[in-house]
Amino acid sequence: MSNKYWLSVAPVIFLLLWSGGYATAKLGLQYAEPLTFLAIRFASVVGIMLLLYGYLRPPLPRHPREWLHLAVVGFLLQSVYFGFSYLGFASGVAAGTLALIMSLQPVLVALVAPSFNAERVTWQRYAGLMLGLLGVAIVIGTRSTIEAPSLFGFGCALFALCGITLGSLWEKRFGVSHHPVVANLAGYAVGLLGILPFVFLFESREVIWSGELLAALAYLVIGNSVIAVGLLLAMIRAGEVSRVSALLFLVPPIAALIAWLLLGEVMPVLAWPGILIAAIGVYVATRY
Hints:
Strand content: under 5%
Order of helices and strands: HHHHHHHHHHHHH
Structural class: mainly alpha
Low-confidence stretches: none
Oligomer: single chain
Mean pLDDT: 85
Number of helices: 13
Shape: globular
Number of strands: 0
């Protein structure tokens, strides 16, 4: 397969794998409590990364501060973002709705990041945020006609959004390039350690092992955490960031469609304009 062809299909594969993670996580949560299921996922990824590290032997960070930055990003992205996302799923937040809320992350980063560099924030970024929030409000309002919203669930979604936003900002400010195996191993190990106390304090740790659970776990571990993240890093190294960013606008509608097919989660007709408005808002805020 030529490098040109590979780069042309990689963004589409990444988009499908990433979008499917929302519904697949909700499917797995039918058989285990949220943080217990997440701990199993993280432990599985750590095991795979340890095997890859033993085979590849990539260089490790040389300075304690580099380990600290990896730990902070790992905690914010894995423990906070995924932890609260799974709690939101367990509280009834629809997969498409959560994907839509998370799509605001680039907007928040675009608004906050310039403050670190003394740059001026354009009015287009604020306009994009307003459009994004309007789209989210439309989707939540129309979804409430089918399923009563859970304040706790939406609170978890907002904390998850804060986690992924702060993690991205920290990476922008302090991040140092490391081998992806090392970065993922450190990130998922810290994420696992970050949620384990809550697993033992607040959950029964009961798991109903089934074919669906194993399939969901395999998808999230291999499809999401290994292949999708690997593709993302490969595309960034190849200079395909703009194409990836453009495709990310399609995550909420595809996530909603997959959730409908996999879980029967209905997205009302009036919610689709809300998804479109939010996508336009994200585009405007991150392009100007």
